[in-house]
Structures are given as C-alpha cells and as structure tokens.
Amino acid sequence: MTNRKTALITGGNKGIGFEVARNLASKDYSVWLGCRDAARGEQAASELRGMGFDAHVLVIDVNDPLSVVSAAALYGEQKSTLDVLVNNAGIIIDYDQEPSEENVDSIRAVYETNVFGPIRVTQAFVPFLRRAPAARIVMTSSSVGSNSIMSDKNHPFYAIKELGYSTSKAALNAVVIAFSKEFADTPIKVNAGDPGYTATDFNNYSGPRSVEQAATVLVKLATLDADGPNGGFFNEDGVRPW
C-alpha cells in the first residue's frame, strides 16, 4: 500500500515500544523500530512481519548525534514523510539512592537518553514530520515527572526521592511544551504520555501494569484526530498535572 502512514518508535524492539509498534502496525502503519542493536531490532521486526505487518529496523542510538543524523539520512533514502514519532527510549540509573548520594555522571547519562535524546531525534526528523499531512510527536513521560504529583504529600509517589530519572521526565515534559508552541500553527501535535508503572526489563518486571495497558495512551496520542490536544500530558484516564 503506497499511502500507508509511517511511524518511528525509538526503543521499539521491546517492552512498551514494541507494543506501541504492534498496535500502530495493526492500524496499517508502516512501523520503523528504532534501536541500537540491529540484530535485536531485526528479530522484533521479523516477529511483526510474521503477524502480517509492515515492519522495518532503523539503527539509532539516541545518545549519539552522528547515529541520529545517520538514521535520519537512511530513513530519507526510503521515505520522504513521517506521520508519527514516538520518543520512547529511556533509561534509569541509581533509582534507590538518596538525592545527595546520586552520582552526577549517572544523572547526566539519564538526561542524555531521556531528555537530549528525544530533542535530537525530534530535531533530526522534523523535515519528514513537516512534510506529512498531520504528524504526531509523542514523548513517553512518567507520573514521577509531574512536579504537582511529586510535591503532593497525600500522593503515594511523594515518598519517592530519586533525583535523576524523575527530574529528567519533568524536563521532558517541558520539552513537550516548547515543541508544541513551535508547531502550534501547523497540523503537527506534540504531547507527553504517561504509560504508568509497567512490568518490563526496565524495572525488572516489578510494575503492576502490562505493556498492553501502557501502550494505550501512547497509541491514542499517536493517532489523534485534527481536533485533538497539543502540548498536553496524559495517561489513559485523561489529563495529568504538570
């Protein structure tokens, strides 16, 4: 199908990213799994193709500017537009340490992936997004990135004192606002999605939510209609506080 919409999902070869890719592929999107390891990416893409879906691998390390530029160039050799970009790749380090004990280099590494990665990927793929009829950009955020939630003494998350990951997601939310302002007068919509505490290898499968549940809000934001929101923060139940 020549008019099939396209979607790029970073961290798309496993966990929530793979489930988002599977969902979008089931909606007849041509999905591109952005991942650092070509072999793992091909294994995931092959699984999707086995389901009858159109799936491709795009080797990309969101931490490496040259890798991102190269990935955009490779994508451009096959496609001129991109309908959906889901910035899903993320890491967490030293989650159980006190803020005063967290290693600054570890925090910097988290920001490199969780904040600067989505920025550089979005910037690299903006030309393709602009050429699409109505592109959607989705950032995978978290409730721990909500300053309102984290400062609410009555919320269960108030007990969380971790510094690097939570503040990186707060920064990512601010990134969403900035990009949404840039594209406010275009058909492009930029939003943050909170998939919730999900059982993946990211947290040693300790989360109570399934990847199927987690993907719901991200897929919804990736497939918004023209009257959908721009510059918001949502989970599957609705608006989240900043």
Describe this entry's structure for a reader.
It is a single chain. Helix 7 (211-222) links the parallel strand 6 and strand 7 (233-235). It contains 7 helices and 8 strands. With 242 residues, the chain is of the alpha/beta class. The chain has an 8-stranded mixed β-sheet with strand order 3-2-1-4-5-6-7-8, sandwiched between helices. The chain has helices at residues 15-26, 38-50, 65-76, 104-131, 147-150, 164-182, 211-222; strands at 6-10, 30-35, 55-59, 84-87, 136-140, 189-193, 233-235, 238-239. Helix 1 (15-26) crosses helix 7 (211-222). Helix content is 41%, strand content 14%. The mean pLDDT is 93.
Give a nutshell description of this structure.
By secondary structure, the chain is α/β, with parallel strands linked by helices. 41% of the residues lie in helices and 14% in strands. It contains seven helices and eight strands.
Features:
8 strands, 14% strand, 242 residues, alpha/beta
Helix proportion of residues, in percent?
Answer: 40-55%
| Average residue pLDDT | 93
Which structural class should the secondary elements be placed in? alpha/beta
Unreliable segments of 5+ consecutive residues = none
Radius of gyration: 17 Å
Secondary-structure element pattern, one letter each: EHEHEHEHEHHEHEE
Beta percentage is 5-15%
Termini Cα gap: 40 Å
Q: Give the strand tally.
A: 8
User: Order of strands across the widest beta sheet?
Assistant: 3-2-1-4-5-6-7-8
Number of helical segments with 4 or more residues: 7
> Mind summarizing the main beta sheet?
8 strands, mixed
Morphology call = globular
